[in-house]
User: What shape does this take?
Amino acid sequence: MALIPSWNESRDPSSRASSLSFSDVVQIVYTFLFLILGVIILFRVIRLGGGPIGLGVGGGFVAFGLYRLRFLIGYHLRRRRGERSNVGR
Assistant: This one.
């Protein structure tokens, strides 16, 4: 008996490999929200005099956003490389 995909899976294996999952989209959105929020916090703190706690929080958000962005780019590049690879075919 053949395996039937669930309601949220595609029946075409090639489209499943190239499309982003809901989890991927959420990770991308959160990464850019961290970056945007960090830049806004830094901008406002610097305009108000630059307290150390505000600079730390804003800088932390920007640093964490960049850290996540690095992994997202690496993940995306690994997926693209995997699609083009003919190893095992």
